[in-house]
Amino acid sequence: MRKTASIFRLSACAAALMAAFGQAVADEEELRWLSEPDSFVSLGLGNWSHDRNQLGIYDGMREGGIYGLFDLRLVSREEASGNWFRVEGRNLGLDNRRISAEASKQGDVGATVNYQRIVREHPLEITTGLQGIGTDTLTVSGAGDDALPFREVKLGTSRDIVQVGFYKFLTEGLKFKLGFRSEEKDGTRHYGVGSAPLFLVEPVDSTTEQIDLTVEYTAEKLQLAGGYVGSWYSNSNKLIMATVNGAAQPGTTSGPNPTPLSQPLDSQAHQVFFNGGYSFTPSTRGTLKLSRTVATQDEQLPTYSLAAPNDPFVGAPSSLDGKIVTSVAEIGLSAHPIADLSLNGHLRYHDVDDQTPLAAFVGNNTTGEGTVHNTPHSYKTVTGKVEAAYRLPMRFRVIGGVDVKQQDRSAPTLVEERYVPYRTEVDETTLRLQLRRSMSETLNGAVTFLHSKRDGNTYIAPHDPEIFDTINPLHIADRTRDKVRLSLDWSPTEVFGVQFNVESAKDDYDHDSERPYGLQDGSARLISLDARYALSDDWQLTGYVSHDETEANQLAGRWPRNAASPVPDMVKDAELRDKGDSVGIGVRGAIGERVKLGGDVQWTRTTSSYDEATDPARAATEAPLEDIENKLTRVSMFARYDVAKNREVRLDLVHERWETDDWSWSFADGSPFTYGTTTDGTTVFVQPKQTSSFVGVRYIVRFQ
Fold it and tell me: What is the C-alpha to C-alpha distance for residues 65 and 45, in angstroms, rounded to an integer?
């Protein structure tokens, strides 16, 4: 759905023409109308014909029915005093509404208040007997006589965000800024138990608050800024207790009833920072950034006081006592030593020091021996960038650069709890080269090449190295990456223009016979074309077409639990592919002075493929996965009629259709997925085809 039409703002060229030929173009009132921001109020109603489970996830109009359409902008400006006042509201009749207010005196003082509500509706259709949804005490439907009444439930979350800002110029060039942000997140989210196929709902009720204090100093050559940022996260639901109705209580250590599920705990972070910039000469400038952040989580674990069989390990601490200290230092230098040459350099140091103490959280209460510990992880990264740009003859411009990244990483100290190989040093170097040329007054083009190489020191072996040391972790594995990008911009006439873009990337991961499992290689391609054509002064056409494709080849293995042999019981050689195609056409025009028309047609298709080669002997239980295809077709039109100079009526029509054959929540025979066999019984269903139409009418008044 289109929002209120954007407002024309007077360009510098138009302003100059009107200043020179004012009486020939418009009178003083018309000039003021064009040059100053206008106010408007837009009121209307819209109706969706059907539910929009997928396409209405974020726009606040998931359900079919009537919605209020209310937008406004109120602007007041006093030329003599420099006072500004502005109020703007969007989607005020919908759940995803936002409104902001600003008052300021130019060059002196100002304040802002913003409110925004962000919604996310769950797109799946769920029928369940689960009781206690929205609370931290849940009861799952039991078997037989212990079954609970089933009904359809709708899940979703909302975030209410309030921001307040204030600034004051203390003296010339010295500015104080204060900001506060509060976000309250509420709702319900699809959840479950890791040890059993049971449907649960996570109750969401958390608050995040942040305060910013900044002092800025600006002079002709020197700019400085420093301050403090503090953030606090608070969760009202620390622990979920899930009970299976009718099952024996309290159960056993391996199968407790109820089952406790810990939720995110309260945390806080504090940062001090300093930024600076200095212009040594008109063509040479240096920058500096420093910051230090301390984040902590020291709340008592909600499971610490539970009774058997959910009682904690006797050697476990009552709190994680988590602490992470992050230090960042950056310096930069840019210069133009000669007219045709520009240079840029940048050096960044990033240190994440995890000071959380190592402790056992799972273990044997009889022997007191811990078996599962937390894994504090620290790393230091030094990144350097150098870039040079030189203007060549014949309208050529060449840009070259080198990026170097060196990272030192920690590794778990307990060998028995290393499940993949680790590296303590990872290095990556990237070379960039770009050639640009203005081939004529109407044709511009550029080609860019990137080549990067990543490697590191010897791997630290995990426990049971005959099995787990055969894995090549993709985020630290040796990798060679190549990218090429070609872009053209052609405007042969004032009424016609085309933009063409092609990108291709290729990743190769080095493997050997001792470490064959993991990502083997990957590639990505993108082709896009955008065009515009002015049929006349009043009518314009736009269009685009794009195709993208991403591939990854991966070798995976599966070993039986506590396997004595390093030979996997299954090997999957997977070729994963995502493809996307999009086409769009738009038209804008006018009939006479009062009627404006427009329309768009958009079509998108995405396909995900999971081609896998498995052991033919196990084909009965390890069948390859089918492709997943999603398609969206959307047709939209609008008509605007100017009732008077400052009043208009707008009509919007939208028709959309979304189709999918996603099997993620289906059984092999196509039936909806059902939790459990004798208990629970929750079913999850995806509507394979969703179609809806929208009609909206607005009345808009503009004024100054």
Answer: 10
Torsions phi, psi of 467, nearest 5?
-105, -60
The interaxial angle of helices 28-35 and 12-20, nearest 10 deg, is 170
Is the distance from CB of 294 to CB of 268 less than 8 angstroms?
no
Rounded CA gap, 107 and 175, in Å? Answer: 10
**CB of 462 within 8 A of CB of 469?**
yes
The answer to whether 649 and 640 are in contact (CB under 8 A) is: yes
The count of other CB atoms within 10 Å of the CB of residue 221 is 11
Candidates 478, 487, 495; CA nearest to 439 is: 487
Q: Which residues pair with 512 in a beta bridge?
A: 515
Q: Where is 12: in which H helix or E strand?
A: helix 12-20
Kindly report, residue by residue over 425-453, the tens digit of the pLDDT.
999 999 999 999 987 888 999 999 999 99
Confirm if 83 and 102 have CB atoms less than 8 A apart.
Answer: no
Between the alpha carbon of residue 340 and those of residues 212, 388, 395, the distances in Å are: 41, 11, 12
E-state strands within 374-516: 379-391, 396-409, 425-438, 443-456, 471-472, 479-493, 496-509
Contact at 8 Å (CB) between 110 and 104? Answer: yes
Contacts of 668 (CB under 8 A, 6+ apart): 623
The 3-state DSSP class for residue 18 equals: helix
Give how far Cα 681 sits from Cα of 130, 485, 669, 677, 695, Å. Answer: 9, 52, 17, 7, 39
Sorted by sequence, the CB contacts under 8 Å of residue 39 that are 6+ apart come out as 72, 73, 74, 75, 702, 703, 704
Q: Any idea where the domains of the chain sit in the sequence?
A: 383-625
The pLDDT of residue 37 is 63
Structure tokens at 28: 């003083």
Contact call for residues 398 and 356 (beta carbons, < 8 A):
no
Query: Please, what sign has the CA dihedral across residues 37, 38, 39, 44?
Result: negative
| pLDDT for 20 beyond 50 | no
Tens-digit pLDDT profile for residues 456-491: 999 999 988 888 888 999 999 999 999 999 999 999
How far CA 371 is from CA of 303, 380, 414, 640, in Å, comes to 18, 29, 10, 69
First to last CA, the chain: 27
For 566-599, write each residue's pLDDT tens digit: 788 788 899 999 999 999 999 999 999 999 999 9
- Which tokens is 294 given? 């301390």
In this model, does residue 13 exceed pLDDT 50? no
